[in-house]
Every structure is written in structure tokens, then in C-alpha cells.
Amino acid sequence: MDREEGEDWEPLRARAAWADVVPIPQDDGPRPVVPIAYTDQFREVMDYFRAILAKDERSSRALELTAEVIALNSANYTVWHFRRLVLEALRSNLEEELDFIESVAENNFKNYQIWHHRRWVAQKLGVGAVSGELEFTEIVLLDDAKNYHAWSHRQWVLQELGGWEGELDFCSRLLEKDVYNNSAWNQRYFVVTKSPLIGGLQAMREHEVHYCVDAIKAAPMNESPWRYLRGLFKGDQDALAHNPLVVAACIEEIRKDASCVQALSLLVDLLCAGFRPTPSDTELLHQPVSSPADLASNVCTHLENVDAMRARYWAWRRSLLPSTTPVS
Amino acid sequence: MASSSSAAGAAAGGGVGEQRGSPSTSVSERMQKSLEDSVETLLGAFASAANQHTTSLLLELWRDEHVKYLKKGYQHLSSTYSVLDSSRPWLCYWILHSLAMLNQHYSSAVCYRSIDFLSRCQDKHGGYGGGPGQMPHLATTYAAVNALVTMGGEKALASIDREKTLQFFLRMKQPFGGFRMHDEGEIDVRGCYTAVSVAHILDIMVPELLENIPEYICSCQTYEGGIGGEPGAEAHGGYTYCGLATLALMNRVDVLDLPSLVNWVVFRQGAVEGGFQGRTNKLVDGCYSFWQGGVFSLLQRMMPELISQQEGWNGPLLAASQGFSSMSDASNCVEEVAGDETEGSVDVEKEKRTSQRPTVINQFMSTDDQLLYGPLFNAQALQGYILLCCQVLEGGLRDKPKKSADYYHTCYCLSGLTLAQDSASHRINAPPPPRAVLGPYSNLLEPVHPLCNVVLRRYYEAVRFFRHSPPVASYLG
Ligand SMILES: [Zn+2]
After folding, report:
1. Global ipTM
2. CB–CB of A38 and B182 under 8 A?
3. Model confidence, pTM
4. Which CATH class is domain B84-313+346-476?
5. Any B CB within 8 A of A279 CB
6. What is the pLDDT of residues A113-145, one digit of tens each?
């Protein structure tokens, strides 16, 4: 898959354009630890790069050399940094720089340096870069829907340069494809809370609760919408505990499946936040209870069994519940 | 990969998708199912083992193989490691720290060479770069300092230029609280952790360095409860560890919503696998044994703050339960009085705890502190995942079955393993009881410091060394 070393690569020492440069070897010392068996190409390209860096030569041949280094190790942040200095000195066309980034990355969009560089270029290009950047991140996410850097870049573009118009639909599309994609849920939260076009969390809450409840009904084991649902009421636990849609969805899932961990877990939180169950709710677990605290305690005990991996956590949650009805 | 996973899914049946009768399963579901299958094969082989001798054998930590793998890499790395040419102090740290946890001693020649090499990575204006001649970087500075602390000894510790390290950190510091990773570099929560962890060890925690960090990290806590890399980003194990550890080092964990953080992190432990995933609905990965497992070690030492926040959460339940007369029988008058008393006494208790609350950092500094609380995660299951699913027969540890070993995963699988073993200790720095160690007791690793991730005894040595060094003053000038 990789290009064979030396096949179509001309050593720098054989190139006339580089004849004036004296390469600087790496100062590794006599017996370095963690020594890497560099290929001859890697070593030579780095030696010439060190020479150019030492001279601080911001020329077009320097720019070409940084491309050669980056092709060999795209995580070398020193080279990327120097490349930016050269780009500025040469007043290079930054549209072309975007193409360069794509050619470098190919399928490797996992390192910090590439994305940081991309952000720098987009910042320089300004508002005109919006559609291109949204398209670019979309292509990356098509292949790797949870790519952390791609999502961060996308959020940065939206906040810094705009382009919010289609973002909620974009999230819906990705969630339609994979409702378990938590990154898309996170992006949805980002849009709902930050988009200047939507009106904020309060205005969107009812709409989003509906969206979320539908997703829960389709896949009750999916943790993402359950967390999103809680998130919609962040800082307002009282509203969560008294929202009829939330309460109904929670109770319904438990009625359908008494071992639905996500629903049981939400029920504990609802109770802690002051939700007052009806007499029929309290019989959910088929054990008589005399107060909401009692019910919360029973649900925790039940979770210790149905969610055994987290038994210690549920026992701990239970131990902190107020005990209004001492065990007789 | 995709075709084999769906085949396995069809053969095994009864997956998440089938249960809800969905016509097609998503990528996330298929990947999860495939991993669960391979984990279950490995755990199944263990479960069906005939006797205790066999199970103990299966659960053995392959020390010799790991040591051989680590020592080899320290002397020679193939050209495929060229992609880590800007992370060489990391390679030093991952390997030296792994060897230290395995209780291996290095020769003085190796120490000498390591100090010499790392000194060549140290920038003349402070901080360490990814290799000789590379720009200083916060992450490689953390790695280099931790490597030197792990080796220990005056020569190693004295090779760190504290004064210039601080100057470098202050150059990277942003007014809103974050740090650039390098000159003109990216800003995220890693920067806070690497700077503050090093500053803590070197005893250069000046106020300017810490300014607005709590506010910045707090703004990175997401609606899920975990912490993301920057404000708005998805909750993630690595950043959650970094954010929480930073605040613990500053004794400011109070700014976080701890109940939601705990609730998020407990759900990161795979119900089948026992290992940790980094984010919601992602696959478990051995390295999160440390990043997420480490969060639990930190939480275990901040229980008073956590409990007081969690009790605050439960407040409305107490009120609701007291007024809950419709279901109560005649005895509820008595109970309500009892309830009032309970409430009163809870408050008194809380008051007491608040006033006597030990600072988090003290809990980590003292050598003989009691650990009053057990861990909130399943430490046995995590050890099972690491030992049965992450070990590679040729040496080294890995992300998950079917992957190959590397030094990063070796370091963080072992770091997670030692924290899990230690989580049942009643005292910091005292060996855990045999039942806390899964497999033979010889699996027990050297204990590590959960905030800085260096072996405990070297941590104390370094802290002593730098507390007795002259104070840095020039940053004022
Ligand atoms: Zn990993």
C-alpha cells in the first residue's frame, strides 16, 4: 500500500536545488534510548529539514520540503508550525493548502496536527470557507462517523464562521443512519444550545423531548437518547421530574421490560428530583412501597441485580437515599 | 471485518437488534456485537476451565513476556515507529513506567543514557520536545518529566530545569484558563493536566499558572456528565481523567457536577466485557482501563465532596417522601417526625464533613491515609478484561482482541490493572488483600500515584526532592 522507499524518490543530496544546503543530523547522542531504525529517506529528509529550520529559510523549496517531511510523519508538529511560517512569508494560496491537507491525510484523520492546521487555514480564509469545511467534515464523518477531531472542527467552524442553517437536519440524518451514534447526539445538543437560529434549549425542549422519546421507543437499550433527555433539563431537575412526557416514557419502558436499565436508572433520578409516583407507578416492581424514597431504594436494589456490573454503584446510590421509613 | 462480524452476529443470534425486532442493525450495533462475541469466547474459555489451577493459569500476568517486549523496544524500534518520531519521550515513559510497575530495575547505564537522551529533548527556553531539536510541547514535557521521576535519583531529577519549565508553561497559558500544547498550537484539556501535573511534582504551582483553569474545565463538562476536549465536544475518557485530575491537583473538584460525572463514568464499563469504553456507545479499549479506571481512583479519594453533592441531588426526594401521605399508613406521623430528625441529623453530619473535609490533594500526599470507601466500579471485571483479552502471548498488551500490542496500550493497561488491584486497599501504600487481586497474587503490580501516574515510591522521592529545592522566583521578573 505504501510507496516503496527509494523507488521514485530522488535523494536530496542528488538534487541540484539543494546543493548549497549542508544537512544537520539528529543530535541523538552516542547511545540513544528508544532509537527508531529510520529509513534512509526519512533520515535524509529530516536532516535537510533541520538545516532549513536552523537557517529559518522561508522559501518555496522550504515549503516543498515540509511537504516531504509531513508525508513521512504527519504528527511532526514542529514541521507543521514551520510550514505555517513559510505559508505566511510566501503569502501562499490557502485554497491550495486545503487540497494539500486532504492529500496528506488520505485516510488518516486521527492526529491533532492535521486538524489544527486545517483550523488555522480556515480561520485565515474566513466566512468563505464555511461550506467547504462543512462538506469536508461531512466526508470524513461519512467514513468515520465518530471521528472526534472532525466533530471538534465542525463545531469550531459553526461557532467561528457560521453555517448553522442545515445543522439540525445533518444531525437527524446521521442519527437516522445510526441512532447509537453518540457523537451525533452530542452535536444535536450543541446545535440546540448554541445555534443562534433556533432559540435555545428552553424554546426547543418540548420538540426535542418528543424526538428523544421516539428514539427511546425504537431502541430502549440505547443509552444515548436517555442521556440526551436528561441533558435537555440540565440545571432544572425539577422540570425533568415533572415533565409528563419524560415520566410517561420512563414508566412505559419499565412496564414493557422490568429490566430496562436505562429506564430504571432514569426513574431513580426522577425520584431523587422530586417526582411523585402514582399508586400504580409504585407497584411497578411488584413490591409494596410506602414512599417515593422507598421506591427509589427498591429500584436501586433491583438495579443491583439486573445491572450487576454496576452493583457497587447502585448500592452506593441506595445508601445515600433519605430513609423516611426505617426498616421494621 | 464487517462481513465476519455480521456472520458471527447471525450465528449467535439474540443481539440487541433482534431483540427489538429492528429490520437492519446500525454500524454501532454490529461492531459492539462482534466485539462481545470475541470477548465472550475468551471469557468463555476461562469460565469452562476445569479447575482452580487452570483458571489461575489463565489469569496469570505474563510478566516475563511483557518485560522482554518492553526492554527490546527501549533498545530498538523498527522503522514503522517513525510515525512516533515526535513522541519519543512518550516512548521512554510508556516503557520505563511499565517496567517500573512490573518491578523491574534498570541498570545505571540505562539511566545514564536515558537522562542524556531526554536532556537533548529539553529546549533551551524550557520544556521538552518530541525528539532532539523539536519544539517544546506540553505533552512530551509531561512524558519526559514522568520518565525521569520514574527512574528517580538525583541526577535524573536535577536534569529538569524547573525555572525554565515554568517559563514555558506560562508562555503556553491562555487568559481564559486553557493552555496551548506548543507555540501557536492547539488548546484542550490535556494542556491543563500535563502542565499542572508537572507543576505539582516540580513544586512550581504559581497562581498565574492556575488562573481560570477551574472555569475552563467546568465549561468542558458536557450534558452527559463526562468532560470533553474543549467546550461543546463530546464527553471522553481521556479528557475526563485529565480534567478531574487537574482539579484534584488544585483542590477544586467542587466546581464540577460530580453526581452526573459518576453516573456517566460507571456506564462506561462494558456490561459484558468488563473493560471501559472511552465514550458512550463506543467499543471498550484496554487503554481506558487507566483513563476511566483512574477517574474512579480519584473519585474514591474525594468521596466527602461527592457524597455531599449527591445528597444535595436527593433533596427533593426527601421532601416528596415526607409529604407522601396518600400511600402511607397511620404510622406516618411518627415517621414524619423521624424524617425531620433524620433531615436535621443529615445536615449536622454534612456540616461536620464539610468542616473536616480532607483536601483531596492531602489524601494523595500522605503515605498512610485510610481509604474509607471502596471503588464504585467493578474492579474484578476490569482485571478480567485486561488479563484475558488484552495480553499478547509474544509480550505487550493491546486495545482489544484481534489487535496487536503497542507500548501505549501496554502502559495504560498495566496502569489500569494496578489501580484496579489497589482499589480495595484500606490504606494508601499498603498491599491489597489477596481477594482484591484477580489471578495469582504474583500478578500484583507496584502501586502508582493516581494523579500523576508514576510509581508511588518514586512520586514521594521526587516530591521530597523538589520541595527541598530552592524556590523559583524569576517568573516574577
Ligand atoms: Zn486505546
Report:
1. 0.96
2. no
3. 0.91
4. mainly alpha
5. yes
6. 999 999 999 999 999 999 999 999 999 999 999
